[in-house]
Write a structure and sequence with these properties.
The chain is mainly alpha-helical. The chain is 58% helix and 4% strand. A hairpin with a 5-residue loop joins strand 1 and strand 2. The N terminus is likely disordered. The structure holds fe (ii) ion (FE2) (2 copies). One fe (ii) ion (FE2) binds next to helix 4, helix 5 and helix 8. One fe (ii) ion binds next to helix 5 and helix 8.
Amino acid sequence: MSEAGADGTDRVDDRRGVPVGETIVLTGAARAAASTLRRQALSVLLECNPAAKASAGRAAGEHLDAGSDEAIAPPSGIPGRPERPLLVAPGAVPQRSIASPEGHAALIHALAHIELNAIDLAADACWRFAGLPDAFYRDWTRVMREEARHFQLLDAHLATLGHGYGDFPAHAALWEMAERTSHDVLARVALVPRTLEARGLDASPAVRHKLSSIGDRGGAAIVDVILRDEIGHVRIGNHWYGHLCRRAGLDPVATYEALAIAYRAPRPRGPFNIADRRAAGFSDRELAALSALPGTTPAP
Ligand SMILES: [Fe+2]
Ligand SMILES: [Fe+2]
């Protein structure tokens, strides 16, 4: 028998060897194994060690109950973060040429940093918003698992370049959108998967080309894996954005514009990866609206 403790942890009181009246607090994999999809995601989010976060995220199962209706108070320590890398403003991240070994490693490090944040973003989407269909939590659990794999692939590749995660400064901007939209699931799915992750679809071809240009075929292959998975993540964002808009009787295009302004979302900039955006579920109307934004490059 288990129940949620007042501090949000799962307390088990019928384990063999535990005297009646005493409780133990599950941690790590044991806690994930005994919990709901939402609590499993929360435990991943709270993990500070990058390797442990990725391992727990990768091992996340979908066989648990979603725990959709449970009220979970946000605990302190969100998101769990390592002491390194040093987090700085986006403009303060040094720009290095990929032609140098340091610049090459810094690029792989920057991608690994994005993926570690992506684990947190998926975990936060999974645990934070109660009352949604079970499929919502299963979808974000799947995304969390794939983001964890992306981090592991990049972290391992970084090691082959003589570096580890934490060796370079990194920016703190990705998590900010999670904080701004923490009270509004419609804004979250509009502005994280459909905006930040969709920008990744646009950026991937150029990153892949950079890595190929210096003969990093392993790095380019990792970008291929990531791009394929990210189309699925954006598709999940589009699916749930459409679901929430229909449920509330909202026009998806006009609502997106209003949310982007209200939450100060980064404006999409071309060139756009139209084929992959379409594969990810953006409608022709949405793609046309995107291409018409001031300051963007027309879609090919
Ligand atoms: Fe990813
Ligand atoms: Fe993603």
